[in-house]
Amino acid sequence: CNLTLSSRFKLEVAVQHLLERLQAALRSSSPNNTTKVKDILRSFHYLSEYVDVESVRKAARQSEEIINDHKKDLNRCIELEFTRWTSSSSAFEKGNARALQDALLLLQDFDSTFSAERWIQSKNEDVTKLQDEI
Asked: 122: helix, coil or strand?
């Protein structure tokens, strides 16, 4: 891509700003921000597909890493809240249930291979055992 030095600099600044917006949208962890995150990811996909500049390709890879890290964090949150729920020694309250539900829905939005319904079905056996013990 034949960009002037000035144009290349502006592009690099814009791409870094896009990465910052992605991180900010993910930090908010609001289900309402999934559209914003997906729009940013589409922008990165488009840029990496059509703009042959190393800084753009690098930022696109970083956006994928950020999303993958976020998915791992959501998985950890889900497992933590589920462990709290199934542990008799942990307090599991309405806030924990909300955190579990939000994490399940967010992970489903960000990961096309994850299904909250399948996850819940996979845990039904554990839930049944827990209910039998109580």
From this structure: helix
